[in-house]
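Technical note accompanying the year-one report. For the benefit of new consortium partners, we illustrate the data format agreed upon in the data management plan: each record pairs a sequence with a structure-token string. No post-processing was applied to the example shown here.
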Amino acid sequence: MGRKHKSGDDYVEQVQDAFWDATLEGDWVNFRAQSSLSSEIYDAVESARKFMEKGNPEPAIEIGFAIIENDIDLINHNDDSCGYLGTIMRYGLELLHDASKLELDDDNRELFQDYCEDCLKKKTLSGWDWDFDIYECLISLLQTPKEAKQLIKRIEKDESLEKDYNADRHINSYGAEQLAAETATDLRTKYRRYRALIEELDKMTFVSQKQ
């Protein structure tokens, strides 16, 4: 009998199980377990990329979001001085960025958008710069000028990004000297990234002009 190949659902389950196993002894995950988890997630991501190469992006979308949703909980409750958990987050986000740039059919595009909207609504990545990555994926999924205009309004009203939108004003009003140098630099970096989202949306053109 030939070897049975894993389906996309199997790899999503593999990701969920890997995070579950890493936290069996509680919320605290030691560096050895983090390293092992990073290796397992890397393998799952590579498998997802093979699905994409064969024209099936759905596993990549689901695996990518499974990674970031599970990993953010570990990041918020563990020491990541070795960088394993941040690397895992990077694996998940890079997979999503790559999937968002594919020519997705309507079903997969809607699936991807729903995952993005759910992530933003739940503030899954709140407090981290990674919200920008979710918005960047949404930009890649846009198809019409109307959608672009709606997304601009959404970004400008996002309370979690408000401090970044007003970063320069905040720094100028209170004086950079009142902030730690790293904090001032971080705020300016976030502000530039925020404005880059708006500017990219403003200059977008669409082959389809459907409204």
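Partners are asked to follow this layout when depositing records. The chain has two domains: 8-138, 142-211.
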